[in-house]
Amino acid sequence: MTEEQKQAIAQIPPKMENRCRALLKQIICFSPENGSISFMLAAWVKSMNPQRANWLSGFNDSQVVEHAFTEESFEANVRDYTKMIHGYAKQTKLQEAENTLLAMKNRGFICDQVTLTALIHMYSKAWQS
Question: Where is coiled-coil annotated (predicted)?
């Protein structure tokens, strides 16, 4: 384990559930030679049967979030998708934001005013650059 990994692990909130702490440690120490994050997350879901609160307890890695949105246990809603779209917009990742919008629509969610505002802001920001 590298010194950087040790520091990152030390910053994991102490109040986080043990099963979430264990997953974050695996993500921090993840190496592509050992497989994929998606496979690791799928194994975690199968063994831990996480609830929405488990998904939300500090996971800020985009791959984790993207995987969470495909899991029924996450129970994604319009606000979650809007936050994801807004996050991609801040990073000027238009294609990812559009893919998230499409995934949201495919799951039967309807855009609300907040989602549309995030999209308008994203496109105006992209047009200005």
Answer: none
> Along the 129 residues of the chain, how does pLDDT read in single tens digits?
788 888 888 887 777 777 777 777 877 787 778 777 777 777 777 777 776 666 665 555 566 667 677 766 677 888 888 888 888 888 888 898 898 899 889 889 998 999 989 888 888 887 776
Q: CA–CA separation, 47 vs 25, rounded Å?
A: 16
Longest Cα separation, the chain: 47
- Tokens 């920001």 belong to 125
